[in-house]
Design brief:
This protein is mostly helical. It contains 4 helices and no strands. The chain has one domain. Helix 1 packs antiparallel against helix 2 and helix 3 packs antiparallel against helix 4.
Amino acid sequence: MLKVDGLQPHSVLVAGLISLGYAGLMVVEGVGLWPEFSWAAYLTMVSTSLLIPVEVYEIVDHVSFVRVGALLLNLGIVGYLISQLKHHHLRKRAG
């Protein structure tokens, strides 16, 4: 039996809405980063760092090289974003 058979319509709807919201966030980030708005850089840093607690939970649940590697990669990306925010002057615009 496939795991897909066990999905409930409500679960599929929730997953779809979460995916749509995440896609919307990515569009907002992209539109803001193109003209180098500072709010978009901060939004990107925050949205990327929100995955860290989930990755830590996954490692606590079951340690594997892939999970530890994903956490280290994400920490590196967040560190890079923070360093870029410190070293680059981004245009500040309201809106």
